[in-house]
Design a protein that fits this description.
The structure is a homodimer. Chain A is an alpha/beta fold. Chain A is built from 26 helices and 21 strands. In chain A, helix 7 links the parallel strand 4 and strand 5. In chain A, helix 1 crosses helix 4. The longest helix of chain A is centred in the first third of the chain and has 23 residues. Chain A is elongated, with a radius of gyration of 28 Å. The termini of chain A are far apart. At the A-B interface, helix 7, helix 8, helix 15, helix 19 and helix 20 of A face helix 7, helix 8, helix 15, helix 19 and helix 20 of B.
């Protein structure tokens, strides 16, 4: 109800609605026999004000590109939103065909295995009002910034609200997002801190008191309103103050710090600080009775005033259509890299950067993000292109925010490529997994993978990344196929092509973009596919399946082995999953003898090959080569490959041992 | 030089030392042909003031329990510390036998494969002045808090300095650590923000300006001095101001925000904002010449004043000796859980909590940390014991800080057990890996692992954890054996015993402590070993290797299969790595037919079994059962195990398919 100024009926109406939603929250968590009714009711007025009056959206299409959005960062409070949803008839249903208006009966199926409303928000289960899965705390404000950034690119005046718990605000990521909002002037984001004073196990620290949260926000450049979160006028005035900030390009960003009561309306029954426990049986009856008494004392019984949903704003212009991106050679020539074509070498990370830039020109939905290392990941090929710079987001040294902001951009309809050193991507693993749970279309790129970076040492080397992402690559996507692809190109030709493929694939991907300038191993117009592999040498004595930078060391070994009469085949595992049948057949054709080589810790490519062979059946011998000791600094890649036992000489010795 | 007030000679001497160290930094990075000389020189005065005058330590034993410590959070600036080390003859050497005084020649071997001084700090490579590996940014202040907390427990007045880059301070974890310092009044920690104005790819955001960093610190409850980091008197006065705060129990914590120059002393040569590039050849010569000119202009040439290292404080009393912890039954009876003994069931997470408490009473070095879920992880059995409460650290909802603080405590000689939901432990994976690189003795415990937690949904379920930690379990420790152990107990008896084993093992461990109250599967005095496994059923038709909660579902399946005449063996994989030979032999004894069952995503236990079988050779058939779809909420563990295909019925069907 942007612009509404009268208070006649508003106070009683909002109280009445807060009572309704609190009652439903108590009832649905009782029905589920689990959940967080007290966290829910602490948000009763704020959520009611947002969902019934202030937010501009159509309940039947709450994820419309132009709708205002609410990110419930403290996801466990979701019953209060489900309560409103069941009254407002919000759309529920996993697919557009099965979508229908939510009912009270739906609310009472909270947390059921067949229900669309999960214990924590997840739009992928069929509740599209939520933009992304939340519940792992501290991530929502970053997601909100991604949504707001996407809206700005679409010329939409969408507002994005984000509710953050006081205890949750201890998560440093919240303050990374605060900085990002100031950097980009994303005043359309409205952070609302819900200060009910209690975490799960204790009252919150005094560092998370309303006063200190407000002081931190002010120190960080925000204007702040500290309000009573159960005072209807204060809630409405603060939301209207946010509108003024959102519409004023010169204003500072604005946040609301709301003092609230955990278990509002039934706190005598619940007791102070109850967390994550439903009230059932007699306790439920007592809570409902206390809510009635609260309503009466507020003069809110039976009131049904003017809080209804406002109009949806005009649709922003849709994105222009996509063209096909150019091939590798054309892109290299267009973007000033003809020299590398003649040299015949170029780093995979640079191949990624060129592809990103080419994609930027052919697909208006492509956006890029980086964390102060764009001159290392070569995301700068994109950011420095004047036509693309506005679609680049510098997240600074804040990788948790980087990944969640990418998730928000994906939720807002963009195709985000988020890059950093692979080692630092680990800072956002949980954030990535939340995006994975949300089934978001995010692309994460890790450069500086493996020991080959040498001199900077292990604090900068991604070594566990293949194992981590592989766990999700082994999950089946809803529509079939793998849950995600790991791409580990060995040269710039494949890095370019696989980046293009990633952009076309709808789903999560992780690309390892190695640092060294390495020779091209493929024809410059070769085809690559997610799930595919390359055949770089034929040989019947042994099959070597290598991946990424290790392919180059393997090629040296194969040349030397050939000189001594051992003919090795070489498969380039540039993707995981890969075609395991094809690998097993190739292994059989090499007498069942297989060596795998990869520049990372174990549980990665070699492990997947071993599983494939065993599944295929037959008699195989495999020797997995991977990084088996903690690396250190060395002055050259060769020093390091030797130190960890992955040099050409080590490969030769391993093959001899297996074949001889 | 605590207490020193005269400035006679100090200014010129500190300038001279800053010149010396900057020159060496330029020279050693030139020799290495990589590194960060400009970041180094921005710290020239601060590091010189700390290492030559202010810190109380013995260069031949800089890691002494009573020595003041310096955590270089912006690890890439390490050449400045190495420079000082080479002049001061700081101890270097990987082992105590090989330890010797560092020389200039050592400094010139920076980043060499045989050198003790890595490209980023790592004490494990032989430079014990640094308390822990750093270089993945934003973690150092948390580590410093752990060191300070350990010192407080040891009744030491140790001071812990932590240097943080301005760009680095964008990492939210820094602000998690700031809150922790205030919560615990750890005024002995002195955060020093090095504001040289430049990140890697750009000038820092205005959100990381000295003014805004200071405003944020003040908002968070700190006193702050904003100083010129190249003004000797300002540097010294600020350090002395920290001493006053450290010694005053009523004072607020104190931080220094230092405005500095990246490339101080040779900025005309380097240019503004040069990052991560050595100056070689003519550039090196020009930089050295400019440094001489800088020295002359400061009147600092040839000065060698009174900056020498102060005395080491008296040794704190060493920890008392350890007793043997009681057995499971005695501990359960002692700590009020006799009822569970009669019931015959107890959750693994509670078994962990009881063991933690028992260990607390028998080993004074055991400390515990948690992130606002101690009533879920049952770390509260420890925190609520009046004799142990002072050794418990509530890190609140800030898991990055949780893990790094544990690393600091380990570096300070304690045996930290850090617990949270397994899902949220992922927030600290990179921090864990840094501790792993440091070879620290940290124990991480994740509760709420797997889909069996049901109602709360996937945002609370640890599913990728086994794959991630497995990558490090496959690394060899320096002294042999696995780099870490994953423990996944199926019942409280094994959870108790494995927690005791973890405490006794020197090295990193990850324990999965499942949520449900499950029946005891072992004799209450059974033995368990890291690397071991349990045999819970014998049967020659098929071998089922299950882990964690999945063992219970498997037992149901085995009973039903027995009724239809299929005799299945059951191995409980409570550890990874495990005895792969023994598993392979058991598989052979079951006709080579193997089913693995685990309540997590793939690339975990089943993958390790597959690798073991293939390595062993022979003809095996394996069917891996794990979580192959993204889970959702459900009202019971059975609902979820059924949803993801891990119910007893699914196991029965899989076995039938393999055997029949």
């Amino acid at each position: 109800m942007n612009g509404k100024t009268s208070t006649v009926g508003y106070v009683e109406s909002l109280h009445a609605k807060a009572i309704d939603l609190s009652r439903l929250s108590v009832e649905m968590t009782a029905a589920a026999d689990s959940g967080h009714p007290t966290s829910a009711s602490s948000l009763a007025h704020i959520v009611a004000a947002l969902m019934y009056g202030h937010m501009r959206y159509d309940p039947s299409d709450p994820a419309s590109p132009t709708a205002d959005r609410l990110v419930l960062s403290e996801g466990h409070a979701c019953p209060i939103v489900y309560a409103a949803g069941s009254e407002l008839g919000l759309a529920v249903g996993r697919s557009s065909e099965s979508r229908r208006a939510m009912t009270i009966e739906d609310a009472m199926r909270l947390r059921d295995i067949g229900s669309e409303i999960d214990g924590h928000p997840n739009p992928a289960e069929g509740f599209p009002f939520f933009p992304a899965a939340t519940g792992s705390l501290g991530q929502g404000l970053s997601i909100a910034t991604g949504l707001a950034a996407a809206a700005r690119l679409d010329c939409s005046d969408k507002r994005v609200f984000c509710i953050i718990g006081d205890g949750e605000s201890r998560e440093g990521q919240v303050w990374e997002a605060v900085d990002f909002i100031v950097d980009y002037g994303l005043n359309s984001v409205c952070p609302i801190f819900n200060c009910n004073g209690f975490g799960q196990s204790d009252p919150v620290s005094s560092q998370q008191s309303p006063e200190v949260i407000a002081a931190k926000l002010r120190g960080g450049g925000f204007d702040v309103a500290v309000i009573d979160g159960h005072d209807p006028v204060a809630v409405r005035d603060a939301l209207l103050e946010h509108v003024r900030h959102a519409e004023d390009a010169d204003a500072r960003p604005f946040a609301i710090v709301a003092e609230t009561v955990k278990g509002w309306g039934f706190v005598k029954t619940a007791g102070k600080g109850l967390h994550g426990k439903p009230l059932t049986g007699d306790d439920e009856a007592a809570a409902l009775k206390e809510l009635e008494e609260t309503a009466a004392s507020l003069g809110a019984s039976g009131v049904n005033g003017d809080l209804k949903v406002g109009p949806t704003p005009a649709m922003a212009s849709p994105s222009a259509g996509c063209d096909s991106p150019p091939g590798f050679v054309e892109a290299m020539n267009t973007y000033g890299q003809s020299g590398a074509l003649s040299d015949g070498k170029f780093a995979p990370r640079k191949g990624y950067g060129i592809a990103l830039r080419a994609l930027g020109h052919t697909n208006p939905d492509i956006v890029a993000l980086d964390g102060d290392v764009k001159n290392s990941t070569f995301a700068e090929y994109f950011s420095q292109d004047p036509d693309l710079a506005h679609r680049f987001f510098e997240c600074r040294i804040a990788e948790q925010h980087l990944i969640s902001c990418a998730a928000g951009l994906a939720s807002g309809g963009k195709i985000p490529f988020a890059s950093s050193f692979g080692k630092f991507v680990a800072r956002g693993y949980d954030q990535f997994e939340m995006g994975f749970i949300s089934r978001l279309n995010i692309k994460v790129v890790g450069s500086h993978v493996g020991v080959n970076i040498a001199a900077d040492g292990p604090s900068q080397m991604a070594l566990s990344d293949v194992a981590f992402f592989r766990s999700m690559a082994k999950v089946h996507a809803d529509e079939g196929g793998p849950g995600l692809y790991i791409l580990n190109p060995s040269d710039a030709v494949s890095a370019y092509a696989l980046t293009v493929q990633m952009a076309e694939h709808k789903g999560a991907c992780y690309l390892r973009a190695a640092r060294p300038d390495t020779p091209f191993l493929y024809d410059l117009d070769a085809d690559f596919t997610l799930g595919g592999h390359g055949v770089l040498a034929e040989g019947s004595d042994v099959l070597i399946a290598a991946s990424g930078y290790a392919v180059h060391e393997t090629l040296k070994a194969i040349a030397a082995l050939s000189d001594e009469g051992i003919e090795a085949g070489l498969i380039d595992l540039y993707s995981l999953p890969f075609d395991s049948e094809a690998i097993a057949h190739a292994a059989q054709a090499s007498g069942g003898k297989v060596v795998t080589v990869e520049d990372n810790y174990g549980a990665g490519f070699g492990s997947e090959v071993a599983e494939s062979l065993l599944e295929h059946g037959g008699n195989f011998k495999i020797n997995q080569m991977y990084v088996k000791r903690i690396p250190k600094s060395g002055r050259s890649a060769d020093d390091l490959m030797n130190y960890v036992g992955l040099s050409a000489d080590h490969i030769i010795a391993t093959v001899r041992g297996l074949v001889g």
